[in-house]
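Service request form, structural biology core

Requester: graduate student, group of Dr. S.
Request type: structure prediction, single chain
Budget code: on file
Notes: please return the result as structure tokens.

Sequence provided:
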Amino acid sequence: MLVPRQETPALAVETLNHGPFDLAADNAERFTLVVFYRGQHCPICGTYLKELERLTPEFAARGTKTIAISSDLRDRAQAMAETVGGSNLRYGYGLPLAVARNWGLSISTSRGVTSIGVEEPALFAEPGVFLVRPDRTLYFASVQTMPFVRPHFSEMVKALDFVIDKDYPARGEYTGPV
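Core staff response, request fulfilled:
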């Protein structure tokens, strides 16, 4: 289990248009927003990433870099980027499922062709959203076992205003006896 204020696992993937991504070297001013998505087969992911694409400049204005990552290979990641449109969001691809599991993501098996006519991969990671500080410590995490009910990026932008203004610490860090 990932713990706020503790170092996150290593994370390095290729991206479509921005060269290799390595979380340890991302150099965000305040945070890197890492959004793991299910893959090109997921219509909900496409809608979700459209909101992130639209709001990426708002995150950037708050010192936060964004990246969307899946275990899809390059061609499927490219197809998702084309579905979403825009040019603000970085897309990472080829996430090893062992790395996904290190991040606490659930792994699912294929159920065949989805409602948009795209075959699910044999295995893929379910979604997760993480805000990570430049020192790679976890600030916020939300992990889903299903494609539904994810954090709203517009709410996260507003929350960042509060976090920055109040220098609000990461919560949920206690790991002692209860």
